[in-house]
Amino acid sequence: MHKVLVIGTGPAGLTAAIYLARANLSPVVIEGLEPGGQLTTTTEVENFPGFPEGIMGPELMDNMRKQAERFGAEFRNGWVEQVDFSKRPFQVTLEGGNVLESETVILSTGASARYLGIPGEQENVGRGVSTCATCDGFFFRGKKLLVVGGGDSAMEEANFLTRFATEVTIVHRREELRASKIMQDRAKANEKIRWALNRTPLEVVTDEGGGQVKGLKVRNNAGAQEELLEADGVFVAIGHTPNTKFLGGAVETDDHGYIVVKPGTTETNVPGVFACGDVQDTRYRQAITAAGSGCMAAMDCEKFLEGSMVHDWSGPTGS
User: Out of 39, 70, 117, 183, which residue is the most buried by the measure of CB atoms under 10 Å away?
Assistant: First the structure.
């Protein structure tokens, strides 16, 4: 039986593993199908402290993994199929039926950005297609950009991108937006924002060499004709999906599937189970905030194992 299982290896899970390993708790880290999380799909990261010249996302994750291994963290590749948190030791079942038992569990499985599922999208992620304005907006200074989406996230991303871009066009498949009135009003008041409503995205278009995004092919739903919206970058802002389906309701989640934690901590409603990173963060979703919460989870876990943590919270619904 293990003392700690960490499920997920983004910045949150790897930071937790570093802290746990240095505390001699011999964490076992389940990597899943995407070791390193979303940062492994990015190119240069310029806003992670300590790297004045920037660092490539995959390199940053590889460095974190090596740091955790240096202190004794054990990594196992596999997909978690189900968990049993009804009693301790907790049981985590991997694909193939291998069952791991642990006194505590840290959930750091992240949240996956939703994509449009159109040609030219996935192959250009990090090369003109992005799902994070805060992460990548700086690279598009003086450029023309498109933001696809009609909710609050799209309005917020578009407004943020106007700090760098000369022009930002919001593309939405309907005439009506889903965003709150205050967010719509804020976007409509921004003189750098244009609108391409009632248009369905069809394809991310690149130059002949495939090295540069040139725009987005859309269908004008009013007349059914196709048109090209020219731009240097396409930001997809249609939401995120927390990776919590495998939990099967074992811990408290909100209406969107994000794990609910006690405010100011990483405690879930199940004593001994903790959550960190984007899987419980509906607001910031940054590598540095994920890493910080990974540190919190490790320290909360350590206190729990020491018996010095008083668990007096059972979730917002008292479940």
Answer: 39
Q: How does DSSP classify residue 9?
A: -
Give the whole-angstrom CA distance, residue 77 versus residue 221: 45
Please report, for residues 122, 131, 142, 204, the alpha-carbon distance to residue 163 in angstroms, rounded to integers and kept in the order given: 26, 17, 9, 24
Give CA–CA dist 122/220, Å, rounded: 23
Active site residues: 132, 135-136
- Nearest by Cα to 37 from 65, 18, 74: 65
Q: Which amino acid is at 213?
A: V
DSSP reduced 3-state for 207: coil
Cis omega (within 30 of 0) on the bond before 52? no
Q: Which of 120, 180, 193, 111 lies closest to 150 in space, CA to CA?
A: 180
The number of residues making up the chain comes to 319
pTM: 0.79
How far apart are alpha carbons 89 and 93 in whole angstroms?
A: 13
Cα–Cα distance measured from residue 124 to residue 308, given in angstroms and rounded to the nearest whole number: 49
Q: Are the CB atoms for 194 and 223 separated by under 8 Å?
A: no
